[in-house]
Amino acid sequence: MKISTLLAAAAVAASAFVPAQAVLAKTPLTHEALWMMKRVGAPVVSPDGKWVVFSIVEPSYENDKTVSDLWLVPAAGGAAPRRLTNTKAGENGVVWSPDSTKLAFTTKREGDEVDQVYVLDIAAGGEARRVTSLSTAAANPKWRPDGQAILFETMVYPNALDDEANKKAIAAHKARKYNVRTYEHFPIRYWNEWLDERQPAIEVVGLEPGATPRDILSPTKLAHTSGFSGPEGETSISLSPVWSPDGKEVVFSATVERWNAAYSEVNYQLYRLPADGGGEATPIAPEKGGFREPTFSADGKTLYFNYNPRVEGEVYNLARFSKVAWPAGGEIGQVAKDFDREPERFQITPDGKTAYILVPEAGKTNLYSVPTAGGKPALVMAPAYGGYGALTIPQKAAKPVLIANYSSSVSPQEIVRIDPAAKTHANLTNVDTAEAANIDWAPPIHFDFVSAGGRKIHNMIFLPPSFDPSKKYPLLVFIHGGAASMNSDQISLRWDAHLLTAPGYVMLMSDYTGSTGYGEKFAQAIKLDPLKTPGLEIDQAVNEALKRYAYIDGSKMCALGASYGGHLVNWLEATTTRYKCLVSHAGEVDLESQWGMSDGIYGREVTNGGPPWEGNPVWRDQSPITYAKNWKTPMLLSIGERDFRVPIGNTLENWSTLQRMKVPSRLLVWPDAWHWILKPEDSRHFYGEVATWLAYYLKDGPPPPEPGAIK
Length: 711
Description:
CATH class of the domain at 445-698: Alpha Beta
Number of strands: 39
Helix content: 10-25%
């Protein structure tokens, strides 16, 4: 069956994906509308540039009823998407075969205890075929260039060189009559889980019937070196392995410094490893640091990546778009020169001459281009609102094809085809377009001001539905986390600006010192000044907003934030009484105790000028709890019980202090949550708690319900 025949029936269903003319009155955003919007995933483009596969998540408030499936749409447009899969579990790590006829992915189908690698033949049709049967979960599959084998990642037990050995290790753990975690090195926790002895491995499996995966990394000296591991993401460790152009080697990023995390930066290197097993891993380049997105040019002569030099003693180091010759290796060369911005993602054109890069800055994500020979990136497109993501350029297309996601705070994520010459994009999907058109929301207003310290501070203002500039509105001051991040003009399930402002509030977002998107020095300037200057800048941003926008009621304001934003909300509790109330989720209140309990400690030491016992005054002078005698503002506290980044201890310190000082306060502890509140009903209740808190203090609404009352 040709792929084109899969789309033959799509015309019948096209109306479901083509935006209809809005005939209904626009309504404010609700949690139900936000949560139940379909969620379009990242585009995965076939190597020939003709087809785009992507996921659509159809959410539900009941966890077991959420659906995630793969869909197919032509890259040229002109046809509605066609569903490819229809199963309970979603597909992860989707990747096309080199001949653009098959897909590989990992998922857990009926009978699978953990994720396995599956192959779906798009051209021939039929069901996906399972190609692994592991006791350890498979992830991140990659096709060998000849299409005859797939590599993937998994987590294995020490000295377990095959699946039988891993099965024995798993059985031994289950058979233990005691239950204890034992450690001799830091770290012991990461985000929301306790770490164990497992380590990352790379396995290769042929696609012939009966083929058995072979672990090519675990037998090496590198994998047996103390401190070996891979880069850590939010939910997993990944070596980001890719095949060499000839399929004879595998390139990946790893470290042997994991156990140094308590007292120094953990540096990584790029390695190469024979793909047939039995060989040793060797460094590709002498430089150490952080490496992301290793990508080969179409001609196989250059390896590109984002390189983050870890300069000891700095709180933030800008990633550089870089390259190294292949197969020679050697010193790293910089591609994007004289460019004080961090590339979020890059893609190379098929002729190898040009790279396109996505760059977050000032609330948006813009598209730049740069010659791969090296040079200063040039701005190609800066959307008026929001920005691009997941940029992909297929390497076997006759001419460059740029496919990406586009989204903003009023445009749910869709897949688009970018025309850099015309500086426009065209939608390939319109999954949520019609629904979004019926919501009463508006893009943010951007403005800048120069702080008392001489820095330009970028801000966004979000307006409520049915906005009337002649009226007065209470102000919500939202403070982003990080600090190495920025406020984005995007929809957010965690802290959505339009959902929070829907009851009739204006929201201010400010990118304080320490934020990214404004150059390396701006982000580094938070060192030795983690809360004081950012807090003053937020205060100055409020003053500037009050001066510029007469519709803001400066007598009715509340500051809200999570993570580093929660830290700063706690700092405002300690340093000002201008707010009617505060909301702090996962915020630290004591720099010293946070250092001792968090899953990461060395970065805090760098920020505050040495370990706590060396006496740098920052540890006490910029801990909100130091000024507890000044606390007066009512505060809503929230914390995930499984949060190991900002553990519950700091929130309990905050709570105890508020109660001791007789400050009106309310504490929400989420037993199933970690750093973020992700369960649908928990999210709905969280937004409800915040809305009630705000209404009580800013709009003379009813008080929050008694603890234990069912809403």
